[in-house]
Amino acid sequence: MVLASDLWEYLREPADDESKLKPYLTAALSKARAAGIPQYENNALYDMFILNLASLYYESRNMSAEPQAQRMIDNFTLSLRHAGEDG
Fold it and tell me: pTM of the entire structure?
């Protein structure tokens, strides 16, 4: 499972207040779930996808990221649905 601390590290931001990132991480998880992508545990591809989507929302900080987010979801949907659990 991706945590806010993982997102801080991914963004290479100083980890002064992880709570600032929680809304972006929650939005990424919600968007993925709404797109029909199940939440995978111990799956590096899923984790990378969520980190990318959350960082997109964080870096844009507005709804202008929505078209790019949808393209990202479209590109990853098939591979994530068939990824399964990492062993």
Answer: 0.74
The whole-number average pLDDT for the span 4-23 is: 79
Q: What is the per-residue pLDDT for 25? A: 92
b/e map 57-85, b = 16+ CB within 10 Å: bbeeeeeebeeebeebbeebeeebeebee
CA atoms within 13 A on the CB side of 69: 25
User: Which residue ranges make up each domain of the chain?
Assistant: 4-12+21-81
Is 10 in contact with 55 (CB distance < 8 Å)?
Answer: yes
Longest Cα separation, the chain: 37
